[in-house]
Design goal:
alpha/beta; five-stranded parallel beta sheet; 23 helices; globular; glycosyltransferase
Length: 552
């Protein structure tokens, strides 16, 4: 008989007599421990899932939650941070500085780092500028190209050089580029305010026709209004074949075309003839206007005078710790509630609604781990001292207005008291003609950074992009630039208990890596504006290097 079968096989009921209460043993009462509310809910949920019906009950809810999470429409932005912070996700550089400061001050082992930093730079040989200029006359022009250069100083520079290359490739006449007034940069400067226009036209004379205006007969067809001219909306990084197959026929038909905007509208990888024109425009034809060049050279001379103890050698640092840069990064530092209020306000002013969209998820810790947070002045100082640069090293700081500058600049000035800026090196009268023009101020910084013994880039962007290439063009193919891996720095700065010797060893490795990457050969995805070898330069043989050294 089965255990659960209560009916006897005979079909009649035969209950057994109840046992005597005296003989029946009484088991001790056992009461289960009371469950907490979470335990009770969990057990109910699990038991429901174990039933077949429970799966179908919760399947729609699980599906909807997964879709919302995948599409980033669940707002986790205001959730409290987890108790455990992954390494490199928190700004602890002030604690690190407090720990290292006594050991840093007592370290007398610093060698003359600025004189020895590039000792291994040219093991593979030097490179020399090599840009061929045409000596032939130009054939009849196919038409005129008018471009609008948008962005800041160096984004406009990209537009100018690419426009020269496209005009030469299409045998077109280039009209002096027009600078688009940008809502962020807010600089109304014209081409001739920043560059030497006469020198530009003269240098390109045998390769590309450049004029300052379109003939009146052509503009009559458009009521002398450039906005009536056909405007090409060209995709970023378009190939030269697109310009030949699509742009050229329209230009021949209309006699003039307009391309706006034009930044990065030509592929990095192009035929040698096109690359040659890019090199010619960037490294030879574009020279800053006389007022900018004169003041820039004056500041270079003053920096060298202040670096007499290091044979006139100084470091230039491109520091991006302005309020808008910090706000855009969405990184968290040590400013507490004031910093949060300032950054929220700056984000709303500059990018209204971009960072407060419903479902927008921002993870400041992950941004820091990925090396995307701007380095603070303190972090730059720690890095350079760890690399062996002592307090007697002269530094030129190329930067806009530093956020909360008095507090953030104090430790950097403690580590490098000989630090200078363009404002510190000039009188009010000298700088006044440039102060309300962001591109002209950037051009002054560019000039001083170009001629420094060491250039330090901390955030990326067009400014260091062009300086890397320009310095390579001037210094035998080597950029003489420190480019730290900020992902590694984030981990290192998040360890306040590290010792000075260990910290210094890590920084020297970063320095050595920058040296090893100083000379690079252009890949198809690289730009000749940052990697000019081999399109704009050629390698020197040992005989040429010996002759050059004997001549100097």
């Amino acid at each position: 008989m089965h255990a659960y079968n209560r009916v006897p096989s005979s079909g009649q009921s035969s209950p057994s007599a109840p046992s005597s209460p005296r003989l029946r043993s009484k088991p001790a009462p056992r009461f289960p421990a009371p469950k907490t509310l979470p335990q009770h809910l969990a057990s109910q949920f699990l038991s429901l899932l174990l039933r077949r019906q429970g799966i179908f009950l919760f399947a729609p809810l699980i599906y909807i939650s997964a879709v919302l999470f995948y599409n980033n429409t669940l707002d986790f932005h205001n959730l409290p941070p987890p108790h455990y912070a992954p390494p490199g996700s928190v700004y602890r550089s002030p604690q690190l500085y407090a720990n290292l400061r006594p050991q840093m001050a007592s370290d007398n082992s610093n060698a003359d780092a600025i004189s020895t930093i590039w000792r291994n730079s040219y093991k593979g040989g030097e490179w020399r500028p090599c840009i061929d200029k045409s000596s032939r006359g130009l054939p009849e022009s196919n038409g005129y190209i008018y471009i609008e250069a948008n962005g800041g100083l160096n984004q406009q520079r990209t537009s100018i050089c690419n426009a020269v290359a496209v005009a030469g490739f299409l045998n077109a006449t280039l009209i002096i580029p027009h600078f688009h007034f940008h809502s962020i940069w807010r600089d109304p400067s014209k081409f001739s305010d920043i560059y030497d226009e006469e020198f530009f036209v003269k240098t390109l004379a045998n390769d590309v026709r450049v004029v300052d205006k379109v003939p009146g007969l052509i503009m009559e067809r458009f009521d002398h209004n450039m906005t009536n001219v056909y405007n090409f909306r060209i995709k970023a990084l378009s190939s030269v074949s697109y310009y030949r197959g699509t742009v050229l026929p329209k230009m021949v038909e209309e006699q003039i075309i307009r391309i706006s905007p034009f930044a990065n509208r030509l592929s990095f990888d192009a035929p040698p003839a096109v690359q040659r024109l890019r090199c010619l425009a960037n490294y030879e034809a574009l020279r800053f206007s006389n007022p900018i060049l004169s003041l820039g050279q004056t500041l270079v001379a003053r920096m060298k005078d202040r670096s007499a103890n290091n044979s006139g050698k100084y470091i230039s640092v491109h520091l991006r710790y302005e309020e808008d840069m910090v706000a855009f990064s969405c990184c968290i530092y040590d400013g507490g509630d004031k910093e949060k209020i300032d950054m929220d306000a700056a984000r709303e002013r500059g990018w209204r609604g971009k960072f407060t969209k419903r479902g927008k998820v921002i993870h400041p810790g992950a941004i820091r781990i990925n090396g995307k947070c701007p380095l603070t002045p303190l972090e730059v100082g720690l890095m350079l001292r760890g690399m062996g640069f002592g307090k007697s090293t002269s530094i030129y700081l190329a930067s806009g207005k530093i956020y909360d500058s008095e507090r953030h600049m104090k430790p950097l000035l403690e580590m490098f008291p000989l630090l200078q800026t363009k404002e510190m090196l000039t009188s009010h009268e000298e700088l006044a003609p440039f102060q309300n023009y962001s591109s002209r101020m950037a051009a002054i910084d560019y000039t001083v950074c170009l001629h420094s013994e060491v250039f330090v880039t901390t955030q990326g962007g067009n400014f260091p992009h062009f300086l890397l290439g320009h310095r390579r063009f001037l210094y035998g193919g080597h950029s003489r630039t420190i480019r730290p891996d900020k992902r590694k720095l984030a981990l290192l700065y998040d360890n306040p208990n590290i010792g000075w010797k260990s910290f210094k060893r890590q920084m020297l490795n970063v320095r050595a890596h920058s040296d090893s990457k100083g000379i690079e050969i252009k890949r198809p995805s690289d730009s000749v504006y940052s990697v000019p070898c081999p399109d704009c330069m050629r390698r020197s043989n040992k005989t040429e290097v010996l002759k050059s050294s004997l001549a100097t």
